[in-house]
Structure to design on (295 residues):
């Protein structure tokens, strides 16, 4: 079966009305996409911003008369002209296979790999994490996750106690366990993240104690990993410092390079001296040690 896709790039204020118009004319789905001119890194909590210029794509059954659709769209939205729409035929594919083909084994550092469960590990003797894309954030494709994994590969937490704060899929917790940690705790505010973490830990045959932030009792640990966002990381400074032993290491990511100085200042106030350890594109990785309290 084939499909017809009708696409238009419109201003932010027109995106939702165009979506409604496409659905009214029988679209099976409507998708918003960026145009490459603006990136949204860290939206305000409780908001779902879209781009100032947004690509709106409506997918229709191939039997639909595209000319009639375009006429209907210009009637519902007279501010748009037919020339602003692109109509294309989308051939049917094995979409499951197409989706699976997007994910290949990924290497981080020297010896750490993320391998989808349907593929063989390229290097069976390496440290291989079996991880499939799922409901919770974190498959290693984002620069912040990649930097954390690369850091773990270079600094394996052998015989250390580790906390993954804001665990998402549990990828950092599982990597820490595979790299020799003697105890690993993972926590998040999203129940789906806890479910994903426990499922992924079981698949990888490692032990991770996971629970919601308000439900789990976390011990003081020698290494804390937190790949979240700059705003929550700033708020968590006293909490993360409390969970970190003296001389313990803190690894933060999920923040922009431009937000680094603010967080370095914030954590200095709770006795942790952070340094910019790595950056990729606009994203930063901060690493620091909790200082010995002065008497």
């Amino acid at each position: 079966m084939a499909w017809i896709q009708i696409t238009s790039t419109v201003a932010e204020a027109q995106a939702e009305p165009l979506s409604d118009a496409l659905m009214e004319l029988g679209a099976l789905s409507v998708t918003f996409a960026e145009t490459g001119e603006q990136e949204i890194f860290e939206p305000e909590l409780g908001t779902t911003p879209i781009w100032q210029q947004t690509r709106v794509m409506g997918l229709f059954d191939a039997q639909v008369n595209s000319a009639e659709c375009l006429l209907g769209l210009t009637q519902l939205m007279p501010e748009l002209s037919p020339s602003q729409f692109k109509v294309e035929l989308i051939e049917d594919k094995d979409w499951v296979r197409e989706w699976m083909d997007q994910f290949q084994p990924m290497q981080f550092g020297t010896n750490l790999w993320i391998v989808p469960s349907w593929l063989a590990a390229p290097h069976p003797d390496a440290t291989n994490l079996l991880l499939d894309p799922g409901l919770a954030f974190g498959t290693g494709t984002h620069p912040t996750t990649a930097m954390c994994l690369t850091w773990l590969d270079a600094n394996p937490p052998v015989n250390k106690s580790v906390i993954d704060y804001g665990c998402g899929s549990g990828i950092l917790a599982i990597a820490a366990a595979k790299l020799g940690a003697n105890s690993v705790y993972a926590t998040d505010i999203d129940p789906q993240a806890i479910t994903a973490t426990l499922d992924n830990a079981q698949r990888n045959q490692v032990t991770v104690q996971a629970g919601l932030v308000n439900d789990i009792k976390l011990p003081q640990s020698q290494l804390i990993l937190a790949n979240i966002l700059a705003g929550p990381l700033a708020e968590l400074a006293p909490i993360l410092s409390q969970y970190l032993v003296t001389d313990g290491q803190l690894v933060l990511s999920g923040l922009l390079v431009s937000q680094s100085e603010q967080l370095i200042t914030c954590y200095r106030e709770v006795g942790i001296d952070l340094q910019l350890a790595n950056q990729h594109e606009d994203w930063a990785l901060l690493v620091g040690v909790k200082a010995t309290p002065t008497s």
Notes: Residues 3-92 form a domain with the Alpha-Beta Plaits fold (CATH 3.30.70.120).
